[in-house]
Amino acid sequence: MSYYFAIIGTQDNPLFEYEFGTSKQGGDGQAHFNDQARHLNQFVLHSSLDIVEEVQWTNGQLYLKAIDKFFNNYISCFITGSNVKLLLLHQPPSSPGGGASGLGAAASTRSSTSIAANPTSPQTEEAVKNFFTEVYENYVKATMSPFYRANMEIRSPVFRARVVAAGRKYL
Amino acid sequence: MSHVPTGKPTGKEPAGLRYPTNGKTIYHRPLNRSKTSELSQSSFAYLFSEMVTYAQRRVTGIQELEKRLNNQGHPIGLKLLDLLLIREPARSQTRPLNIISLLQFIKMSLWQHLFGRQADRLEKSSNPDTPDEYMIIDNEPLVNAYISVPREMSQLNCAAFVAGIVEGVCDGAAFPARVTAHSVGGNEDGEMWPGKTVFLLKFQPEVLEREALIASKV
C-alpha cells in the first residue's frame, strides 16, 4: 500500500506534499510507486479537485471520505474551514489473480481485513480520518504563526516530522 | 516524543534555521485555551491606538485609512476561522454552507471569542434592490471604547478593523464579500447607543448564485 498526500491551497496551489507507504502489517513505510506513477499521482490528485468542489457544498462535514477513484487509485479528502484541501491518494497493492483469493489462506484472511486491501471499508475510512484530523491540527498550528500568510508553502521540518508520525501511526 | 527533532539541524534543512533552545515550537503548544484566558482591555486599547496611528501615517483620506485598518484585520479573520472550527467539539465541526449559518458563526463564535459576548443583531437588507447585503449590528464595539473621532473626520469608524476580520472569515469560508463599518448612533438626544455600529456585508454575486443553486437541490 502506497500513499501520496498533499495539502492544496485555496488557489489550487500545493502547500505541502509527502509520499509514504503503510507501516501496518510489516509494511516498510516506503512508497512503492513506479517512476511513471509518481508523476501521474500529482495529476490524479489535482484532477479530483473538481469533485471536491461539487461535494463540499452538499455536506458540511470536514472529512469528505473517499471521493474519487482512478483505476486503482483512491482519493480521500478533508477540507478545512478556510477551503484548504487535504488530499490523500491511496493505492492498494495490486495482487495477482485480481483479489485476495489468489494468495495463501493465512495471508488472504489477514490482508483482506487490513486497511490496505480495502480502501473503502469503514476501518480504512476511520484510519484516514484520524490521519487527517491529526494533520489538520498541525496545519492550524502552522497557520497560527504570525509570519504565515494564507497559501504559503509549509516548509517547517517539524510539521513534516509530525505528518510522518501521523502516517506511521494510523496508516 | 521521539519524532521531535533535536536542536541539531540535519543536512536537508537550510542553513540558519534555528530551533528555540527549549526545543518547543509552535507545534508543541495546544490549540485549546481555557475559557479564562482573557487579555486586558487597556493593553489592547493601547495597542489598537498604535495600529490606528500607524495606519494613519501615510494616508490621504478617511477611505484609505479604513481600507488599511480593514487590511490589518483580514489575515486575522482567515486564521480565526480555522482556529474556532477546530475548537468546536468534534460532533458540531461543520463548515458553513449557506450565508445564514456563516452569519450565525460570526455572530456567536467569532464575537464570543473576540469580545466575550455575542453581536447584538443580524439583519438582512430590506431593500429589494440589494438582496446581497446583510448587516451585523454591534451596539458598542469594544475597539471603539476609547476612541473619540475628531469632528472633521466624522466619517471614520475604527471598527473597520473588525470589518476586516469579518471579511477575512467570509473570504476564507468561500463567501467573498466586502465588509464595511458604519456608525449609525446618530446625535439625537435619547439615543441609547451613541457608538452603535453596523457592519455591512455585501456578498459577491456568485455567492448568491450558488446559494440559489444549493437551495434548489435540497
Q: Which class best fits the helix and strand makeup of chain B?
A: alpha+beta
Provide the residue-averaged pLDDT of chain B.
84
Specify the CATH architecture of chain B: 2-Layer Sandwich
How large is the count of helical segments of chain B? 5
Total number of distinct structural domains of chain B: 1
CATH class membership of chain A:
Alpha Beta
C-alpha termini separation of chain A: 9 Å
- Rg of chain A is 16 Å
Helix content of chain B: 25-40%
Protein model, in words:
- The complex is a heterodimer of chains A (171) and B (218).
- Chain A is an alpha+beta fold and 171 residues long.
- Chain A has one domain (2-170): Beta-Lactamase, CATH 3.30.450.
- Chain A is built from 5 helices and 5 strands.
- A 5-stranded antiparallel beta sheet of chain A has the order 2-1-5-4-3, sandwiched between helices.
- The longest helix of chain A has 22 residues, at 122-143.
- The radius of gyration of chain A is 16 Å and the shape is globular.
- Chain A starts with a strand and ends with a helix.
- Residues 96-110 of chain A have low confidence and may be disordered.
- With 218 residues, chain B is α+β, with helices and mostly antiparallel strands.
- Chain B contains 5 helices and 4 strands; from the N terminus they run αααββαββα.
- A 4-stranded antiparallel beta sheet of chain B has the order 1-2-4-3.
- In chain B, strand 1 (121-124) and strand 2 form a beta hairpin.
- In chain B, helix 2 packs across helix 4.
- The termini of chain B are far apart.
- Mean pLDDT of chain B is 84; it is low at 1-13.
- At the A-B interface, helix 4 and helix 5 of A face helix 2 and helix 5 of B.
- Chain A: It comes from Lasiosphaeria ovina.
- Chain A: Pfam families: Sedlin_N.
